[in-house]
């Protein structure tokens, strides 16, 4: 029973850390943290305006960020990267707008072209 209590406390502490980091990124960023049943991971749902995004983080990683500044910065960057994707429209798929090219030698003019006579491009000398 004490093991499940410790796990519940760890989850609650991880939630607090995630909310604190998200608030430091942007005060308008909505954060919802959900438990993933049977796993030591949390699902973090981010909302900004009409846009939504999700990431998953391991509870031990979140708890390690309390003690270690590098781990805290890594977690903050992970949340920030997810929140930044909410701000920008996704890039259009450039493969959809590719136009077919004409076959070689297809619709070009006659071989002599350009008003040049049979003497070639030089004309009279």
Mean pLDDT: 82
Strand content: 15-25%
Count the E strands: 3
User: For the report, how would you describe the main beta sheet?
Assistant: 3 strands, antiparallel
In short:
Helix 1 (2-25) crosses helix 2 (59-67), helix 1 (2-25) packs across helix 3 (69-87) and helix 2 packs across helix 3 (69-87). This protein has 3 helices and 3 strands.
Main features:
3-stranded antiparallel sheet, alpha+beta, 125 residues, 3 helices
Word description of this protein:
The chain is of the alpha+beta class. The protein has a domain at 2-88. Helix content is 42%, strand content 18%. It has helices at 2-25, 59-67, 69-87; strands spanning 30-35, 41-48, 51-58. The protein has a three-stranded antiparallel beta sheet. A hairpin with a 5-residue loop joins strand 1 and strand 2 (41-48). Helix 2 (59-67) crosses helix 3 (69-87). The protein is elongated and about 100 Å long. The N and C termini lie far apart (106 Å). The mean pLDDT is 82.
